[in-house]
Amino acid sequence: MANGVDTCFMNPGTSEMHFVAALDRVDGLRGVLGLFEGVCSGAADGYARVTGRPAATLLHLGPGLGNSLANFHNARKARSPIVSIVGEHATAHLKVDAPLTSDIATFARTVSNCVRTATSADDVGVAAAETIAAACQPPGQIAMLIIPADYSWSEVNAGGPVVVAMVERPRRRIPPDRAIDSAAQLLSQPGTAVLIGGTAVTPRALKAAGRIAAATGVRFITARNAPKIATGRGVFQPPQVAYFPEGALPMFADVKNLILVESEKPVSFFAYPGIPSYMVPDSCAVSTLAGREQDGTAALEALADDCGALAVYPFVQEPDPVFAPEDSSELTLDAMGQTLAACLPDNALIADEMVSSSGKILKYLAAAAPHEFMPVTGGSIGQGLPVALGAAIACPDRKVVALEADGSGMYTLQALWTMARENLDVVIVIFANRRYRILDIEMARTGANGFGRIANDMIDIGRPNLDWVKLSEGCGVAATRALTAREFTEQIRDALGQRGPRLVEAVFA
What we know:
Layout: E1 7-11, H1 17-22, E2 30-33, H2 37-51, E3 55-60, H3 61-77, E4 82-88, H4 104-109, E5 114-117, H5 123-135, E6 142-148, H6 150-153, H7 177-187, E7 192-196, H8 203-216, E8 219-222, E9 229-231, H9 245-252, E10 257-261, E11 285-290, H10 296-306, H11 333-343, E12 348-353, H12 358-365, E13 371-374, H13 384-394, E14 400-405, H14 406-409, H15 415-421, E15 426-432, H16 437-445, H17 453-457, H18 468-474, E16 478-482, H19 485-496, E17 502-507
Helix pairs in contact: 2-3, 2-13, 7-10, 8-10, 11-12, 11-19
C-alpha cells in the first residue's frame, strides 16, 4: 500500500496463509478472491489496462502459477504492470521434494520481465519494493516475487518493523527532437503511414493524430495488440490492423515509409503457406517516432505542432446512426452489432474475446457512444471475462461490457462467481454459435482441409449444448437467453439499465 498497490487478486494456499491473515491487520489492501489462478492474472491485466497502475496477484506455489500463465502471457503482450507474489515451500522443506515442489522461477520467467526470490525475512520488504519498481518500468512489466513460507513467520534481524522503501515511478520519456523532426519530414512524402499502439490510442493521443491526418493527409493505422483503444462517435478512428493477413497485407501494400508510435512492425498471428510473416513490404522503410517505453501521446502532439497542424481538433465525420432492431427475426451478428452500438452507454469499457465474431461487431461499435475497447493482445484464450472483472474493480463508476465467445468463455468461467461476489457492474454477452468457429476458418486457410466427422468433432462444442443461463446462475449471475433480434435488444437494454452483473446468452447460427 505504501507504493500505491491497493488491490490483490488471489487464490492462496498453505504457503500464503500469513499474507491472507495480514489482510485483517493492514488497512488499504483489497483482497479479491478468484476461484482459478487464470482469473486472477487476467483480472490484474484488466485492472492495469484501465488504470495504468499495477494490481497484485497472490498465487500458491508452482502449480498455482502454472494455472495463471496463459493470462500472464496476454498481460505481457499488453505491457500491463503487475506485481505477482508467489508462495514457496519453507526453505528447509524444499530438500525433501514434497508433492507440490517445483521450479517456480522457471515458470515465472516464461511470462515475466523480472523474477526475484526473497533471500531472508529481512529481505522481504526491500524485495517487494524492488518488485513494484520493476513492474512500473515503462511500458509496464510483469514482476514476480517468490517468498518462502518460513520468511513470513521468522523474526527479522533488525529487531523492529521493516521499513518498506518508497518507489519512485519513472515517467515515460518524450522522444528527442531529432525523432520528431525525422517523422515530420516523412509526413510530406507519398506512401507514408503511422502505426499507433500502446498508450498512444487514448482520446488525447487520437486528437493529435487527427490533427496530423487533417493537416498532412497521412494515413494512421492502429496496432492489433494495443491494450486499450478509444473509439466511438466523434473520435478519430484509424482502422485496426486486420486479424488475417489477407486483410492486413493490402493495408500496407503501398506503404513506403512506416512510422511506429509505441508499436512494432506488424506480423501475422500465424504462418500460412505462401504468405509472409511481416505485413509490410520488404521495401518499406520502418522508423520509430516513439518506442514502447516512451511517451507516444506527447510525441504525436509535438509532431502535430511541428507540421503546423490546426490547434483545434478537426471535424470527424460522424458515422451513420445505428438503431436496435425490434423485430422477431432470427438473431444474427448484424442484429447484435446494431443493438450494442445503439444501446452502449457513454464511457463504457469493453473487454473483447469474440474471436470469429469480432470483425462484424466492431464495425457497428464504431458508431456507438464514445467508449474504450480492450482487445485480445497475446491471443491466449480465456482473457475476456477476467479482463472485464479487473476493469470493473478498477472503475466501479463505468459500465463494463464483456463480449465473449462461448468456447473461450469456458476457459475462465469462474470469473462470473467473483463478479457476483463483488457485485460488479458488468454485462456479459455470450456469442453462442456452439463451435470453435475460428477453427472452421483456419482449417481451410492452413490447407489442412480436415472436414471429416472426427475432425469436425474436435471443433464442434454443441454436443451437448452449453447452457450459459444455468452456468451463469450457478455462479450467482442473473442470466437470460436471446434467440431473436427483439429478445436480444430487450435483454441488452434491461441489462445495461441496471447495476450489477448480468449475462445474456445470444444464440445464433
